[in-house]
Amino acid sequence: MSGCGAETGLMSVDQALATIVDRVHALASESIPLRQALNRYLAADIHSEIDLPLFSQSAVDGYAICSNQSVLENSKFELIGEIRAGQDQNLQLENGQALRIFTGAKIPEGTTTVARQEIVTPLSPDQIQINIALEMHADIRDIGEELSRGQLLANQGQHLSVGAIAALAMAGVQQVEVYQFPKVAVVITGDEVAKSIDDFSTGKIFDANAPLIQAWFEQQQQNVNIYHVEDTELALQQLIQQLKQECDVILTTGGVSVGDYDFVRPVALAQGFQQIFWKVKQKPGKPMLFAEYQRSSGDFCYLLGLPGNPAAVFVGMQIYASTLLQALQGQPKLPNWFSATLKQSVKSDSRERFLRMYAYFEQGQLWVENLSKQQSHMLSNLMSANCLIRIPENQVLSAGSTVQGLFL
Amino acid sequence: MSGCGAETGLMSVDQALATIVDRVHALASESIPLRQALNRYLAADIHSEIDLPLFSQSAVDGYAICSNQSVLENSKFELIGEIRAGQDQNLQLENGQALRIFTGAKIPEGTTTVARQEIVTPLSPDQIQINIALEMHADIRDIGEELSRGQLLANQGQHLSVGAIAALAMAGVQQVEVYQFPKVAVVITGDEVAKSIDDFSTGKIFDANAPLIQAWFEQQQQNVNIYHVEDTELALQQLIQQLKQECDVILTTGGVSVGDYDFVRPVALAQGFQQIFWKVKQKPGKPMLFAEYQRSSGDFCYLLGLPGNPAAVFVGMQIYASTLLQALQGQPKLPNWFSATLKQSVKSDSRERFLRMYAYFEQGQLWVENLSKQQSHMLSNLMSANCLIRIPENQVLSAGSTVQGLFL
């Protein structure tokens, strides 16, 4: 363990997150087809352009009935035809008449109630009998009973989950105004990182960071460009110079500490980036850099520099990159931490720790269990981890303590 | 409300799910690149082909030291060179010598400990001083300390989450043996469903089901073919005849009840499908059909027939389609229900209900709050719902009761 926790004046995790939320400018919006909008965020309220349901319809397979008086047990009605879902027959029922009707079909004019088929006996091709007394207006879905035309259907900022997309589709929405998804470039630094199996040789390691980040974006239906760059100031400078003009976000891994070959920060500063913060009092991931560059157009390019250890990259993506990407999409919000109960005591540290743990429910209570192999160069416990838990600095955390976390 | 809950002999939700889990045959496996394997399941154990770490390496930027005795305060060492991450210099340190070393660099032969740069003063280009006493073997990540070559890295059945992919990549895994993802065809029935905005006319409705199902699969990095079919026996029969030869799963929406135009079940049976179950004691989604067809090759095509109401489709996908797809991928498991506490009392029914609710944490306790507009033709509460909650049949569920559910 390097005793770097002793370093003073570091920013706390909460301060770092609040800074991202306060500082980042949302991107512009764009109009895209609803079917391509999964996991995006609405940039404007949507008011319904239709009534929902769009017309009064039968809730069952049965018979539409017109009766000037209460429908008593064993009432008989003249059967004058049939209407199916999707049809529009412009029929008018008169007193004493009935029409065969199916679920979702438009309720004909004159209908006073609907009799579901289970309580009806057809007596002849032209006559039916209702076997039990029937209340008025039974089994009818009324026009607009869910939502009236002009009513608010979805708020600005609404996350377009699978369910939200279905609900918008049902209201006839085909196109949505959403925040742009940031254009992201990922820069993997470090001469030790083998770019491919052919590039592998003694002293090098297999790269977990590019696959991790690629999969993390794929999980959100996004692709990113990944660049590998050698540990020279010139190579990094040329790449940053190009990317700062093209991207909304540059995510780097490695080279962000104070080593002789840690070029990310000096290159970023030399390229005109303003440091927003550097170094967070956390483990893993202390030497994290957050900086911004303002283009002559007025737009910003943000640089999130993560340390190269894969555990630091994992935490950086789950906690910081997600907060940054949401803020860029008009959602300046802190992570929505859950609270859970520790199953075993956990060792605190002079820096706040993020531990990979296993969470499970028991009688409405969320418990979290520690996993071994938490060091920053180890990842294999991610096979069983399902959450990241915050362990505050310098505290005694016995079994039964309440902690905050995020599901993975 | 159609009083269909009164119907006797219906299968329970738990029975229906257990039947899927017991009955479904897993698909064969295939070998694919790790980078394309997000959210798939391993079909075989993976033993590590390398040690992790692959070689002993420095955990810090500092100096590799060779000392036959304890390193005391203000010890001096001869500085003989430098080694960076990714390099392999085949250097041999002798007693009294030191080498500049960086995080992740290979520990040279002869190293007894590492001094992090914060505790070292360079005295000249050839000499350094260690300012404080140093323990043996400090700040060294040992070869194989996370995992030895040949050790079990991941189990058959492992879900390939973002973290699991990163952990496998770090162990040099490039190709994985996973269960095939089922080939799925989606069949949307119902003449009332407008196929597009041009197809829209009075009596028709905007289709929520195709967008819902498409987004649901997209969330899991999968595409499906969606077919719209008119409500005639012939059209449905021709389509099923073709799909049963090509697909592992046919998902249908609508046309699965007992109405005069409900052709899914009769067509499936006529096409050689064996009914596994039909009708589940649940709301929404009672007239659900599950059937299988065995091809002459011995392979199976499963048909999951969901009712046409969008809420029934939503529940059907979250609860039943997910269980079916997992079983086909070698994971015959019931849903992993959480337990939570009801904030308000909830009305029970003669059938088990699935309610869309809002879940939130308070002091390690998960609470769920009811939402309005729960009817099966309504979806707008999915803008705020984040879970599906099971309300058992015929029970008094007061505030404070424990219920089961799934996050959305």
From TrEMBL, chains A, B:
Superkingdom of the source species:
Bacteria
Residues passing through the membrane, by range: none
* Reactions catalysed according to its record: adenylyl-molybdopterin + molybdate = Mo-molybdopterin + AMP + H(+)
InterPro entries, alphabetized: MoaB/Mog-like_dom_sf (IPR036425), MoaB/Mog_dom (IPR001453), MoeA-like (IPR038987), MoeA_C_domain_IV (IPR005111), MoeA_C_domain_IV_sf (IPR036688), MoeA_linker/N (IPR005110), MoeA_linker/N_sf (IPR036135)
| EC number assigned by the record | 2.10.1.1
- Start and end residues of each MoaB/Mog domain: 185-327
**GO MF entry, a single one:** molybdopterin molybdotransferase activity
GO cellular component terms, alphabetically, are: cytosol
UniProt keyword terms in alphabetical order: Magnesium, Metal-binding, Molybdenum, Molybdenum cofactor biosynthesis, Transferase
SMART domains found in the cross-reference section: MoCF_biosynth (SM00852)
User: Tell me, what's a Pfam family for it?
Assistant: MoeA_C
Q: Which GO terms describe its biological process?
A: Mo-molybdopterin cofactor biosynthetic process
Pathways per UniProt: Cofactor biosynthesis; molybdopterin biosynthesis
Which cofactors, by name? Mg(2+)
Similarity field:
Belongs to the MoeA family.
Q: Which NCBIfam families match?
A: molyb_syn (TIGR00177)
Q: Which PANTHER family does the record match to this protein?
A: GEPHYRIN (PTHR10192:SF5), MOLYBDOPTERIN BIOSYNTHESIS PROTEIN (PTHR10192)
What this protein is reported to do is described as: Catalyzes the insertion of molybdate into adenylated molybdopterin with the concomitant release of AMP.
Q: What is the name attached to this protein's record?
A: Molybdopterin molybdenumtransferase
**Organism expressing this protein natively:** Acinetobacter tibetensis
